[in-house]
Each structure stands twice: as structure tokens, then as C-alpha cells.
Amino acid sequence: MANYDYEIVNGRKIRVRPKETVSEIDKNGYFRRQPNHFTTPFGDGENDLKAEGNKRYRLVWAKLCHWSNRAAIARELEGLEDQISVNMVEHAPHEKNLGWEYVYNENNIDPVFGDQFLSEAYYRADDDYQGRTTVPALIDTTTGKVVNNDYNWLTTYFEVNFRPWHKKGAPELYPVELREEVDKMNLWLFDNINNAVYRSSFSRSNEGHFDGVNTFFADFAVPPADAKGRIEGEEDGFRASTHYDLALPKIDWDAQWKVSTERAYLSSDPTHPIYLGNNRRFDIDPTWYDLGAESPKKEEKETPPSCGCCCG
């Protein structure tokens, strides 16, 4: 078994969450997402998970994770509230990042499992699991173990395998005649939209960052930027960034921000409201994207992931 870092919280020995900016960065500074670990499908096969109602399973999700929002929405649309129980998690302040915690419950304790952290169900299922604990996660209430965290397919299982427990008049979210097309679109969305955001945010090199950015905007016919953020043909006085090249003609951004959003103005004003959101942008801190995965130039403040399903 690998050596792990632990913190003692309320008498519990809790494993410190791995950092994706260390464990999921390749030698070129690109973010490479960890694979899902608990991927046994629901089905009729001998080794498949068996769908069951009566709250045999418990869905754990987080508000800030779009993948787990999707699972929570599908559960309610199909009327599975009385068949699959649910709880929510969030990050809470600790000396070290301990991952998802049941912060919405009394004393931060899940009333079904008696756990304080989602990781407890992960390590109950696999004590040598070395990845981040992610949401959504489906836990077997009879064992307290995570049985599936495969966010790409979890909503499909709710639609297909849990169909006997759907409410009357539940919508058809996965029509048979469209399944091949839906599956292809899901894969495309994962690579080009959802995960591209993470690649642009967590990569530790300019090349990795702009690979994610350019992938995200490729379908909008935005000119690709190079590793220095420059777009071919751009005037030297501009600090090019494809974040501002997407044309949204129905939105008056100047009125929205109360100041000009024209490219020249953005380039000359680092205090512009667009720069001052929750995102850590290289426009404000030009050293951040120059950090190496193995030899950072400055200490970083520990912050929760932007989505964590996927998120962790």
C-alpha cells in the first residue's frame, strides 16, 4: 500500500486529498484527468450491479459540479426520489484539503452512513484507492461503499436500469432511436467542452492552458492562440486572449459591465471587471501559468476545485 498523508478530524483518520495540479500533470505541464475508478455497470450480467429501489443506493452530489447536477436532475425528473436517497457535499476549511464533506448535515455527519467525508465511503470500497474522491458518487447503503462514480454513464443507468421505479409519465431522456447519437454527443461534450475547461485551468504550462482554451473555442471558429496567448495577425499592442474573441451579438457587454469591453481597452486595463471574477487569470498574475509542475516558483493558496466530478 502506498504511503498517504492523513489528518485527524473529530477522531477520524482522514486521508488528505491528492492535488490534481501535481498528480494529474504530465511532463509537459498538461492536465490529464484521472480515470473513473468505480465503473462496474448496472445490468443483467453476472458481475454487473443490480438496480434496486427502496433506497438501496444513495446519490452524493455537489452544487458546483455540473456532472453531479446532471445526475441529481435526472433522478428527480424520473421520479426516483423515493427509490434513490440523496445527500450533498461541499468543501469545508481545514488545515489541509480533505475533499468533499457533508457540511449540510448536523455536525457534518451523514445520517445514513455516519460518515463526515465522502472519502470514507471511497476507502471503504478500496482502501488503496489513490485518486481524488469525486462526485457524483453512488453508494450502496447496505455496505457503505461507493459502487459507481462513472459520471459519464450514471444518468443513463438511472434512465434505463432504474426504469421499473420511474414515476408515471416520467420523460424519456434516452430514447432508443437516439441513443447512438446521444452517446456520441456526450463523448464530444466531455472532450471539447467540459474537460477542456479543466485542461485550460489546471494545466501547469502555457501550452497546456492554450490547448484547453483552443479546444473549447474550436467549434466557434475562433482563431487559435499560441503558447504566449498571441493570435496570428494580432497587433503588438494587444494582449490576445481567445476568452474575448467569441462574438455574442445578442448581449451588449459594454452595458453589462458599464465600461468598454473592446479588445484594446481590455488589454490596457488590468482592473477591468472581467478580470476580477473568481477565475485566476494569467492577465492578473502572469507568473501563474509559468509555474512548473515539479518546481513551483511561489506558494499557492489551497482552493477547492472549480467543479470537482468529475469533481473532486
Brief synopsis:
This protein is 25% helix and 8% strand.
Write the topology of this structure.
Blueprint: E1 6-9, E2 12-15, H1 20-23, E3 57-61, H2 66-77, E4 84-88, H3 119-125, E5 137-140, E6 145-148, H4 154-160, H5 179-202, H6 206-217, H7 253-257, H8 263-268
Parallel strand pairs: 3-4
Antiparallel strand pairs: 1-2, 3-5, 5-6
Helix pairs in contact: 2-4, 5-6
Question: Could you explain how this protein is built, in words?
Answer:
There is one protein chain. With 312 residues, the chain is an alpha+beta fold. It has eight helices and six strands. It has a four-stranded mixed beta sheet, with helices on both faces. A two-stranded antiparallel ribbon has the order 1-2. Strand 5 and strand 6 form a beta hairpin. Helix 5 runs antiparallel to helix 6. The longest helix has 24 residues. It starts with 5 loop residues before the first strand and ends in a 44-residue tail after the last helix. About 20% of the residues have low confidence.
User: Hey, roughly how much beta strand do the residues contain?
Assistant: 5-15%
Largest sheet features:
4 strands, mixed
Low-confidence stretches: 235-251, 261-306
Task: Output the radius of gyration.
Answer: 22 Å
Kindly identify the CATH topology of the largest domain: Glutaredoxin
Q: Given the C-alpha coordinates, what overall shape results? A: globular
Mean pLDDT: 79
CATH architecture of the largest domain: 3-Layer(aba) Sandwich
CATH class descriptor of the largest domain: Alpha Beta
Query: How many distinct domains?
Result: 2
Write down the secondary-structure element order: EEHEHEHEEHHHHH
Alpha carbon gap, first and last residue: 22 Å
Percentage of helical residues?
10-25%
Helix/strand/pairing category: alpha+beta
> What's the tally of helices?
8
CATH homology superfamily name of the largest domain: Glutaredoxin
